[in-house]
Design a protein that fits this description.
Elements lengths: L1 E5 L5 E5 L2 E5 L12 E2 L3 E3 L1 H5 L5 E4 L9 H4 L8 E3 L5 H8 L5 E3 L5 E4 L2 E7 L7 E7 L2 E5 L7 H9 L5 E5 L5 H5 L13 H10 L3 E5 L3 E2 L15 H11 L4 E2 L7 E4 L4 E4 L5 E3 L18 H5 L7 H21 L12 E8 L5 E9 L2 E5 L6 E8 H10 L9 E2 L6 H8 L7 H7 L5 H11 L7
Parallel strand pairs: 3-6, 6-7, 7-8, 12-13, 13-14, 14-16, 20-23
Antiparallel strand pairs: 1-2, 1-17, 2-3, 4-15, 5-19, 9-10, 10-11, 11-12, 17-18, 20-21, 21-22, 23-24
Helix pairs in contact: 3-13, 9-10
InterPro entries: RibonucZ/Hydroxyglut_hydro (IPR036866)
Protein name: MBL fold metallo-hydrolase
Length: 451
C-alpha cells in the first residue's frame, strides 16, 4: 500500500513501508508572500522539525515550490533532490547547511527506499518538471504545475496503466489580471490539451492538485485569478473519463492506495485545518477590478529611505537596466513610444514618470506629455518588495495599459505581449532566484550570501 498526504499547493508526502518522501515542501501560510492556503491551514513548526523524511524532491525553483524558509525547518541530513537548470540554487541550499543536495536529471530514476522516482520533461524544460513515482507495483504521476511535453506524453502513455495522477487542475489568469482591459472572460473549462492528455493517460484516480491558494482577503484576484472550480473540474473529468474517480485531497488529508480501492487515512498532524475545508473558488467573469490607487491603500507605508530608493530606481536604475538588455521582441517598440509609469503610495497618491523607449534605448522625459503609448501602474510598496525581497510578478498588483489610448494606437497596443512591458522586463528579465536569495541572506544573516 502507498499512503499519499497533501501538505499544501503542490506539496505531498508519499509513504510506503517506512519510506517517507516529500515533494515541493511548503510549510508556510501565506507562502510566496501573498499566497494564502485555500482552504485555510496552520503549520505546527515544532512537529515539522521532528519529521524524518527519507528524501525531499523539488520540481522547480518557483517560490511556491522551493522556499528556503520551509527547508530551514528540516533536518540537514535530509537528502534534497531538485530539478533546476541553474546551479546557484543547489549552492544556496548547501549554504543552509544541507549536506546531501542533488540535481535531478530527466528520465533518470532515483531509488529511495520503496520508491523509484523519475523526473520527466515538462513543456518548459528550462523551468518545470514532473515526477513519475513507482512503489509496490503502483504507477503514480505527479504533474505538479507542468504542461506536459508531447514527447513526454507519448513516453507516459507507454508507461500505462496509471493508478493515480496528481493533476494541476487550475488554470491561472496571471496575465489577464495584469491587463484586465484586454482580457476575455474564461468559460471555466480546462484547456483542450489537458482533456486530451488526461484521456490518453486514463488513470484510475485523479487528485485535483496545485493552485490550492487564494490571495489576500480583500483581493479582487480571488474572483478573477482561478476560473476552474473543484466542482467544475470534477464534472468535466466525469464526462471525459466516466471510469476515473476524482478525489479531492485538502491540506493535511491522506489516502491509502491499494490495488482494490482507496481509503481515507489519518491526516498529517502538523498541518492543521482552520475553518471550513470543502470551499470552492468563486470566479466572477464580470467583475470590475478596482483602480491601482485603491489597491495600493491596502499596503503599509514605506519609510522615507525605502521610498527614496524606489524613486531613485525610477530615475536612474531602471534606465541602466533597460539599456543593458536586448531590445524588446515586439515590433511595437521599434518605433519611439512614450511610456508612463505610475507609482502609488499607501494613501493612493500617484507619482508619475515619463520615458521614451525605442528598441534598447530609453530616456527619461523631464515633463509630462500627452502622446502616451504604454502605461504601467504599480503600488510603491510592491515595487520596493520586487527590488529588495524578490517579489514575483504574480503578487505585485501591477496594471498594464489601463488607459484610453488614441484610436490609431488602441489596436496595436492590444496586440503586444504584456510581458514586453518595460518595468516587467527590467524587474524580471534574466533574474533568477531573487526570492530565495533574499531568504538566504535573511536566514544566514549574511547580506553578501552568494554562490
Amino acid at each position: 500500500m502507498v499512503k499519499v498526504s497533501r501538505i499544501l499547493h503542490a506539496g505531498y508526502v508519499f509513504e510506503c513501508e517506512g519510506t517517507r518522501v516529500a515533494f515541493d515542501t511548503i510549510f508556510e501560510n501565506p507562502f510566496s508572500r501573498n499566497c494564502h492556503a485555500f482552504p485555510t491551514v496552520e503549520f505546527d513548526q515544532e512537529q515539522i522539525r521532528d519529521q524524518k523524511f527519507s528524501a525531499v524532491f523539488i520540481s522547480h525553483y518557483h517560490d511556491d515550490h522551493c522556499s528556503l524558509d520551509s527547508l530551514n525547518l528540516l533536518d540537514r541530513s535530509t537528502p534534497i533532490y531538485m530539478y533546476c537548470v541553474f546551479d546557484e540554487i543547489f549552492d544556496w541550499i548547501r549554504q543552509l547547511g544541507f549536506t546531501n543536495v542533488n540535481s535531478l536529471a530527466l528520465n533518470t530514476p532515483v531509488k529511495v527506499g520503496e520508491f523509484e522516482i523519475t523526473t520527466r520533461r515538462a513543456l518548459d524544460a528550462d523551468v518545470d518538471s514532473l515526477f513519475q513515482i513507482k512503489a509496490k507495483g503502483f504507477n503514480l504521476l505527479n504533474v505538479v504545475d507542468s504542461w506536459i511535453d508531447y514527447d513526454t506524453l507519448d513516453l507516459l502513455c507507454d508507461q500505462a496503466p496509471w493508478d493515480l495522477v496528481l493533476w494541476p487542475f487550475q488554470t491561472m489568469r496571471e496575465i489577464e489580471v495584469i491587463a484586465p482591459r484586454s482580457a476575455v472572460p474564461s468559460d471555466g473549462l480546462i484547456p483542450e490539451e489537458w482533456a486530451e492528455q488526461l484521456k490518453a493517460l486514463n488513470p484510475r484516480y485523479v487528485i485535483p492538485s496545485s493552485c490550492q491558494f487564494s490571495m489576500e482577503s480583500w483581493s479582487w484576484y480571488n474572483h478573477a485569478f482561478f476560473p476552474v472550480s473543484y466542482a467544475g473540474f470534477t464534472n468535466q473529468i466525469k464526462a471525459l473519463l466516466p471510469q476515473t474517480r476524482v478525489v479531492r485531497l485538502n491540506p493535511s488529508c491522506s489516502i491509502v492506495l491499494d490495488h482494490g480501492d482507496i481509503k481515507f487515512a489519518e491526516p498529517l498532524p502538523w498541518v492543521i485545518p482552520v475553518g471550513p475545508q470543502d470551499v470552492d473558488y468563486d470566479y466572477q467573469p464580470d467583475l470590475v477590478p478596482p483602480k491601482t490607487s485603491e489597491v495600493a491603500k491596502h499596503f503599509p507605508a514605506l519609510t522615507l529611505e525605502q521610498s527614496r530608493s524606489v524613486f531613485e530606481y525610477c530615475q536612474a536604475g531602471l534606465l541602466e537596466k533597460y539599456r543593458s538588455m536586448p531590445a524588446p521582441e515586439d515590433v511595437y517598440f521599434e518605433s519611439p513610444r512614450v511610456w508612463r509609469l505610475s507609482v502609488f503610495d499607501h494613501e493612493g497618491q500617484e507619482q508619475r514618470f515619463f520615458y521614451q523607449v525605442q528598441g534598447a534605448a530609453i530616456q527619461k522625459l523631464t515633463v509630462a506629455v500627452d502622446d502616451i503609448a504604454w502605461t504601467t501602474e504599480v503600488p510603491l510598496y510592491k515595487l520596493h518588495a520586487a527590488l529588495q525581497a524578490g517579489e514575483t510578478l504574480t503578487s505585485m498588483y501591477m496594471r498594464i495599459n489601463d488607459f484610453d489610448f488614441v484610436a490609431e494606437l488602441s489596436f496595436a497596443v492590444s496586440e503586444v505581449d504584456v510581458v514586453e512591458d518595460p518595468l516587467i522586463r527590467c524587474l524580471f528579465n534574466g533574474v533568477f532566484g531573487a526570492y530565495q536569495l533574499a531568504q538566504l541572506r535573511r536566514l544566514t544573516g549574511c547580506q553578501r550570501a552568494v554562490l
